[in-house]
Amino acid sequence: GSQCIDKSASCHYADKNACKIYEYMKDICPVTCNECGDDTYGVKCGIETNAPTRIINGVDVEVARKYSWQVGLKDTNHRSEGYFCGGSIITNQHILTAAHCVIPSTRKGSLTCAKPVYRVFVGIGDHKQEETTDNFSDFLELIPSMNIIPHPEYNCFTLDNDLAIIKLKMPIDLQKHAGVIHPVCLPKDDSKTYQGLTATSTGWGSVVGYNEGEEYSPNYPNILQEVQVSVMNNSKCIKQRLISDNMLCTANEEGYAEGGKDACQGDSGGPLFVKQKGRHVQIGITSDGKGCASKENPGVYSRVSKFIDWIEKEVEPETIFTLP
Q: Which residues form the Peptidase S1 domain (predicted)?
């Protein structure tokens, strides 16, 4: 990945014990590259929130903000309506999502992809998309985007390189909300395939499955949903779907693409993550599926590990969070 340098030469190993003191770190060492340890600013990635409250064959996420890096995207003209896509918090000011969420559908007959939308609103810290309190009204925010950056090699016809970064107009105060809002961890590099691991997909997308070509009436849940799926071998998936090395596929928990569990319409852009060392690492971005939870049609995700260098470059001077 790209190398960043601390803004202040005053940030030395001796400062390590001050890493949890936000004002000190902000002034002395704004960009640490984890030199001062995993607890910089008191923020840890991929931690489940255990604040008690009360997807296709998925279940309600029973704990509000259990996966607090999950965000929802709203259209600027329909802010009172539900989320049209998902995303994940990767820094205090950047959201990772799918490019097809922020680039309008290509007109029939067009040979070029459309330009990205001008602005979206991002719901931070939400749980029930139709309610405004969720018992944590002081943590629920709707923040407008300042900049939307699709991957420069995104192909709207094949959905290759289907990812985008949204820079928020205002940063999320992760230090203030420590223990409630956590960014997700990202892979350090592209050394793992995650094949055979059980992964979790989350979103507010439709909970009604369908086969491609069928008449479809989506049913969107109020409460954030989660579903467990198994990461497939790409060589097996490519026999059923046209995919590139930049993608990964999921099947049901038994490892078979027999349907029954999947992300669906409205889940796009949301995270697919695995648990490692007690933390959640995002390995995929919900991208494409032929129908939802349909037999012999695996779910397809953008493979996050293929894009770490690009993500790091686009979020500078902020830094992404990885496992210590």
A: 55-316
